[in-house]
Every structure is written in structure tokens, then in C-alpha cells.
Amino acid sequence: MILRRVWRSNCTRRPFSSFPYDRYPLDAPGCNVPRNIAERVGTNLHRQPQHPLGILQRQILEFWQPHGFDLYDQLSPIVSTTNNFDALRIPSDHVSRSPSDTYYLNADTVLRTHTSAHQHELLRAGHHRFLVSGDVYRRDEIDRSHYPIFHQMEGVKLFAPHEQNSIESELKESLEQLAEHLFGPDITKRWIDTYFPFTEPSFELEILFEGEWLEVLGCGVIHPEVLEKTGRGDEMGYAFGLGLERLAMVLFQIPDIRLFWTHDERFHRQFASGEIVQFEPYSKFPPCYKDISFWLESAFHVNDLNEIVRDVAGDLVERVWLMDDFVHPKTGKTSHCYRIAYRSMDRSLTNEEIDDLQEIVRNRVVDDLGVILR
Ligand code: DAH
Q: Nearest C-alpha to atom 4 of ligand 1 is from which residue?
């Protein structure tokens, strides 16, 4: 009952979900998708014209459309492990494939972890200039900039054989212009060499924002093997991917990633289609901290704790972090102490309701993770 109460007080309406529960039952073996995640599938914040993510998506589209790019922003986030990983040369033992990091519906179907998951099918279908935007899913830490669902935009351009010597320079020039389109002509930028399995060479673009270097996007020249797998091994091209929340938090000055999911009118009435405005926080409610300590018994991954806390407290959880990590000198057992910060974006919390939630979390970690509370 508590769960329902939190859910209702947190949202003014139930989310729309297009998750195919019949086809992918959440209780099937190998499925690690909790109901609160499945319920968000189909929300499509990036397609809401008045939502900061929708406004940002439009601005990016505005930049690319004159260059002949088509947008795919309604592709299903349910994808095969082949498209999400193998087609992109992500090694079979890569950590990102682990069920501690990725939501699996079954052994070979996942909630996409990035929009790059659509490169293969769209290239195979013969497209050569496209953008893909959508919700992506990762089991991750909990803090102001991490949320298990976020949004990305991907771009791909293939070149005709006679244009192929200019790929890297065109890629860099175009993305620098995109950064100026979003952040203004005076923004300071720099390129960092990096590694992605699906591009070679690979780069990240950073901009100097309020004294700090901020990663804006990843990109590179598409790896020949990625193109070969689509039957287009004789072509060449570039690809890039950017995180919409990360950019929107900076552009609109939105301090907490959970705000993108709020139904509070005080948030939504501040934004209008086509405009980037500074968000004015409507109020700041006090956090409530609770600690939980336990002895680890078997394999333990912090993302499993994070999942439970989210499942129980929804968007009332602001941050979860390790406070203490201790090995008993005699038994050799490891103990972890985590602090959970509860804070609502929209209202004051009562001590009793947080005590109730914390009690459920304590029971769930014992039942689901087999740890021993201290
Ligand atoms: N898929 C990458 C990620 O989620 C982002 C990315 C990097 C996409 C480089 C690309 C690319 O298309 O070329 O972190």
C-alpha cells in the first residue's frame, strides 16, 4: 500500500506505458526490468514540444535538417542484444552487457542502452543521413545527474566515394557548429581523443561552461567492420551521439535530472516550445538522510541496491552513496554502509513516510539480495 501512496503523491496522473507486458512478462526468468521502469516506456519526453528535452531536440534537429538528415524519434527502445552490442563491435565480455548495468527482457532482448543500437537496422535499410532520438536505459548510480532512463540523439552520415577524404574534418566542423548553435558563437571548445568500439578514430567534444570542461558528445569515423556487418563495407561515414539531459541541464539550468519527469505545473509552465530559458527553482525542500549497513554475503552489486531504493521510493530518492566499506579482521567479511538522501522536488516529506520507506528498503535488501543487516 505504501508504494501506491508514494506513487500517487508523486505524480498527478499515471504515466502512459506502451510496454508489451504480454510479449515480455516482467517475471520471466532472466528479466531484470522492474515495473516502475516498464511503466515509463512510451512516455517519449523527447517528443513533447513544450518539454525541455523536446525543445532541445527541436533545436538540434533545426541544425541538421538543412543538411538532409531525417529524424527517427519513435523507434521502439526494445532491441536485440545483436543490435545494441554485437553490430557495434562491443565485446561479449564488456561490462556494459552485464545484467548489473543493462535491463534485460530475456537473454537476447534489452532496453536499448544507447541510440547507437539503431545504426545497424537503419544502415541495412539503405539510409545514409539520419538522426535517431529516444529514451535509453541503464542501471546506474543515483544522484542529481544519473537516472535509469535518459535520452540520447544519434547521428549518422555516409559519404560518396569521392568525398571520403574529408570525413573527419567535416565531422569536426559540423559538430563545432552544432555546439555554437546551442551554446552561442563564443563558446570555448576542445577535442579529446577517445575510444569507442564502433568508431575509429573516436573523439569527444568538450565545451568550457562556467569554468568547467563539459563533455557534449562522442563521435568518430564509423568502424569499417560496423559497415561491413550491414552489407555496406565499401562505404564510409561518421557517427555521433549526445545526451539530451546533460545538455538540457546546462542550457536550461535544471539542477536535478528527476525534474524532467515531474508532473508539477510549476516546472512545466516555465517552458514554451522553441525557447531556451533559465529554469527558476520554485522551492527547495529539505532532504532526509537514512543510513543502511549490512554484511555482504554473496555477489553484491550496488546497482541492485539502487534498483530497490528506486522501486520503493521512486523519484523521492535523490542520491545513494557508499559511506563506509569495512572488512572484519577476523571473519574477513565485508560490510557496507550506504547513505540514502530522500528529497521531493515538489513538497515536504514527513519523517514517518520516510521511515516507512526505509523499513521497506531494509526488508527488501535482506529478501532480494541476501545480505545481513547490521
Ligand atoms: N553510444 C555512445 C554512448 O552511449 C555515444 C556515441 C559515441 C555514439 C560515439 C556514437 C559515436 O554514434 O560515434 O556513450
A: 114
DSSP letters for 300-317 = --HHHHHHHHHHHHGGGE
Q: Which atom of ligand 1 is nearest to the CA of 155?
A: 12
Residue 119 Cα: closest atom of ligand 1: 12
Q: Is the CB of 292 under 6 A from ligand 1?
A: no
- The pLDDT confidence band at residue 148, using thresholds 50, 70 and 90, is very high
CA of 171 to the centre of ligand 1 (A): 14
Task: Give the per-residue pLDDT at 299.
Answer: 85
Question: Rounded to the nearest whole angstrom, what is the distance from the C-alpha of residue 152 to the centroid of ligand 1?
Answer: 9
Longest CA–CA span in the chain (Å) reads: 70
- Tell me the fold of 35-258: BirA Bifunctional Protein; domain 2 (3.30.930)
Least confident of 3-7, 68-72, 321-325: 3-7
| CA of residue 283 to ligand 1 center, whole Å | 36
Q: Map out the domains of the chain as residue ranges.
A: 35-258, 288-373
Q: What are the φ/ψ torsions at residue 55 (nearest 5 degrees)? A: -65, -45
- With beta carbons less than 8 A apart as the criterion, state whether 217 and 205 touch: yes
Written out in words, the top-level CATH class of the domain with range 288-373 is alpha beta
